[in-house]
Amino acid sequence: MSRSAQFAKPGLALTAAVFYVLLSLSIKERHGYEILKYVEANSEGRVRLGPGTLYTTLKRMLDAGLITELTERPKLANDDARRRYYKLSPRGRTELGAELGRMQHALKLAGKRRAPAST
Amino acid sequence: MTRRASRLAERIYALLVDRYPRRFREQFGDPMKQTFRDLLDDPDMPTSRVWLSVLRDLRSSLLREQLTDLTGGRLMSRLPFVARALRVAVVVVLIGATPLATGFAGYYLGRSQAQPVAGSTPPPDQAAVERALSRLSSEQVRWVPIPWIACPVAIAPGDPATVTIFFMNTGGEARCPVFP
Question: Which residue, among B16, B17, B18, B34, would best test binding to A if mutated, counting the most A CBs under 10 Å from its CB?
Answer without folding.
Answer: B34
